[in-house]
Design brief:
With 468 residues, the protein is α+β, with helices and mostly antiparallel strands. The chain is 53% helix and 16% strand.
Length: 468
């Protein structure tokens, strides 16, 4: 079931995300958009001859992106057929990284062609100005309490989950597994909700855009944009809190992977709906104020490939994206450079960890008795247990029937190793290949171990050294 859950979750996330990217970044009606492939849309583009050129550029890039989208979805479905789960997860991760880059290649190409078209028809850079009207800086739309209240509710649910994991109470006759699996998941999503508070404040404090020499138009435009951000952020936080509540219920009352899967898929779909509504409202705002725009800042050349903002003359750290939804950082800002480096390092580290995990999943486990010690080995010695420290040892069948809940370590079928709660007993040391039916349970130095080798024969051979 875990394998199917992973595939369904990835499809539920990636297919709608790719569709939204395609529809938002490759529109049919470019005349209604504020930007065309990251280049500010201008009246000069709508002249008959120039409009034909823009139609040609946007049409070609849209067809290329559409082909990439269809091929991507087919590949996603085919990846679900890879039999090995660890290999499939590695392929999914690499595919996501590569596919996002490939999907924006037509966008970047269109950005270059639109910039060339600007020069060709004689549109030159007018200079970049970031001045605001004096009273524009006071425009805000976010009520911080609208983000705090749902997070307080989520925190209460997390505390309830923690008390449940500690065994302080039972629900529907179900006992805790003895670890912090439920409260850990709740806390992780609570952190997501809490992170939306500073993000919401940051976007509400973004420098206001000056589109007109009429102060009222500027205020109304920026108020509408910021309200859209605020409403979307509030929606996302409430969805996150509802997810925490329903996941707690699914894990405690139903103890069902399918119920958890349904909740997760609905959560992702609602987030995508939220993003879609934000995009729709944002486009409507730009269309509404398009005719009232009398000041156009030409900073197209500061957007590398239409996606990466690099402007040493701009003191802002955060700016609104021209490609995709949300905000991005000014890579010329000192803090922006640090964030960029850290982001690259995190991606590389995550990839290395995933590759290492894949290698580990393909490396067989071995169990041997040597020089008066039991040695559990996979790439390196995970456990070395001196025989003279063993207080009790027994060999039992049914390793797959053990109820294993990881505290720390590794648990990719069929190999489980690290610190686990086993059948309600906390703090156990585990080194098990669940494809091998036999396992050895022993206690040494006050610690309980559940171990076996890569084969039944290997496990029996080690145990034979303790039969008197």
């Amino acid at each position: 079931m875990n394998n199917h859950m992973f595939d369904l979750m990835m499809l539920a996330i990636m297919v709608p995300t790719a569709l939204i990217m395609f529809l938002y970044e490759y529109p049919k009606k470019w005349k209604e958009r504020k930007f065309i492939f990251g280049v500010r849309n201008r009246e000069e583009f709508k002249n008959i001859d120039t409009a034909e050129r823009v139609d040609e550029i946007t049409g070609r890039c849209r067809r290329q992106a559409g082909t990439i989208l269809i091929v991507s979805i087919v590949i996603m479905v085919l990846m679900c057929l890879i039999p090995d789960f660890m290999l499939r997860m590695l392929v999914w991760t690499l595919f996501v990284m590569v596919d996002i880059i490939i999907l924006i290649i037509p966008f970047s190409r269109g950005n270059g062609e639109m910039k060339s078209l600007k020069k060709e028809i004689g549109i030159n850079t007018k200079g970049v100005s970031y001045a605001e009207f004096t009273n524009a800086g006071s425009i805000h739309a976010l009520k911080v309490s609208s983000l705090v209240i749902p997070n307080i509710i989520g925190a209460v649910i997390c505390v309830a989950a923690l008390f449940y994991d500690l065994g302080m109470y039972k629900i529907a006759g179900r006992a805790s597994a003895g670890d912090f699996a439920i409260s850990g998941i709740m806390a992780a999503f609570l952190l997501i909700g809490l992170s939306m508070i500073p993000v919401g404040i940051m976007f509400d404090r973004l420098r206001n855009e000056v589109i007109s020499d009429d102060s009222d138009i500027n205020k109304n435009y920026n108020r509408a944009k910021k309200k859209n951000w605020a409403d979307t952020n509030t929606f996302m936080v409430w969805i996150n809190t509802i997810f925490i509540a329903f996941t707690f219920g699914a894990m405690v009352f139903f103890d069902s992977e399918m119920a958890s899967l349904v909740v997760m898929v609905l959560y992702m779909l609602l987030l995508i709906v939220g993003i879609g509504l934000f995009v729709k409202r944002n486009l409507a705002i730009d269309r509404r104020y398009r005719k009232e725009t009398s000041i156009e800042v030409d900073d197209d050349d500061c957007w590398i490939l239409g996606s990466i903002y690099y402007n040493p003359d701009d003191k802002r750290l955060n700016v609104e994206k021209r490609a995709g939804v949300g905000g991005t950082i000014n890579m010329a800002h000192p803090v922006g450079k640090v964030i960029g480096v850290i982001t690259v390092l995190i991606v590389l580290f995550s990839l290395v960890v995933l590759i290492w995990t894949a290698v580990l999943s393909k490396t067989p486990t071995t169990l041997k008795y040597e020089d008066g010690k039991i040695i559990c080995h996979q790439l390196s010695n995970d456990y070395v247990i001196p025989a003279d420290t063993i207080e009790d040892i027994i060999m039992l069948p049914g390793s797959q029937n053990l109820k294993l809940s990881r505290t720390s370590g590794y648990n990719m079928d069929p190999v489980y190793k690290g610190n686990f709660t086993v059948d309600g007993e906390r703090g156990c040391k585990v080194f098990l290949n669940l494809d091998v039916d036999l396992y050895i349970r022993l206690t040494a130095d006050g610690k309980t171990y559940y171990i076996n080798g890569g084969t039944v024969e290997e496990t029996e051979e080690v145990y034979s050294n303790f039969i008197k």
